[in-house]
Amino acid sequence: MRVLLLGGTTEGAALARALAGNSRVRARLSLAGATRAPRPQPLPTRIGGFGGVAGLVEYLRAECIGAVVDATHPFAAQMTRHAAEAAGRCGLPLLRVDRPAWLPQPGDNWAEFPDMTSLAAALGAAPRRVLLTVGQKELAPFRAAPWHHYVIRSVDPPAADVLPPDAEVLTATGPFALEDERALLRRHRIGLLVTKNSGGAATAAKLTAAREMGLPVRLLARPPAPEGLARVPDVAGALGWLHALLAERGV
Ligand code: NAP
Q1: Is 155 in the pocket of ligand 1 (CB under 6 A)?
Q2: Verdict on whether the full-model pTM lies above 0.85
Q3: What is the torsion angle, in degrees rounded to the nearest 10, for the CA atoms of residue 185, residue 205, residue 114 and residue 38?
Q4: Which residue puts its alpha carbon closest to atom 10 of ligand 1?
Q5: What are phi and psi of 238, to 5 degrees?
Q6: Ligand 1 centroid, distance to 80 Cα (angstroms)
Q7: Residue ranges of domains in the chain, CATH in brackets
Q8: Residue 241 scores a pLDDT above 90
């Protein structure tokens, strides 16, 4: 059975490793092309958008895809919507791998915001030293609060036109260890952490470090996901779903 795996995440990479060499599944990984040098994956990989829902429908038909696994990031809401619509139009089974959101623990000082503009405004009038781990697409709203000092951690260097004026850029790719996150917060004298509620273990250590140091955390809330999708929280669940599908199809 041919499977399209929409990736760009830890789960996508883990599924690619798990499906490589599986004789019953011919999986192909799809990446958006958002990072300049994605880590090589052990599956045939295509890179770049499909050209909206119509392009994805065309691709699914041309490649005789039998099932789609959407392991894109929780904030890749457009791709998830497109996958749902295209799989629906083609009558294909679709699974969403939806890692659970992070939840506050005792001792946390968290506030969630529905959009980055309101979050940036809520940083307040007093200058602060802010660690931003939000991705390049979400940086521009902080230009409206230029009196803060921003330490921006990003996989690739962001374009200059999205950066707030007082910004320091650190390029790094997770996973991040707790001791390194503690050291980062101390070294840069961070007073507040801003992140998306991405969930997952790979980038959770910063939240533990912030809790230990009593730092406030401001999070962008998850975008709503399309209703009625089959979903699992992790890679094991996705493999279980695929095996059940193969058995049902007699593959
Ligand atoms: P998005 O806003 O939902 O998608 C924008 C467009 O990018 C989609 O309409 C699609 O273009 C293309 N696209 C997205 N994911 C794709 C994939 N896996 N394969 C082929 N095309 C894809 O997505 P995004 O938030 O920009 O994320 C882009 C990629 O980065 C995703 O693969 C996601 O898993 C990964 N990522 C995102 C975040 C985040 O915070 N958003 C964090 C880590 C990793 P067409 O309409 O032309 O098909």
Answers
A1: no
A2: yes
A3: 100
A4: 49
A5: -65, -40
A6: 9
A7: 2-99+224-249 (3.40.50.720), 110-220 (3.40.50.720)
A8: yes
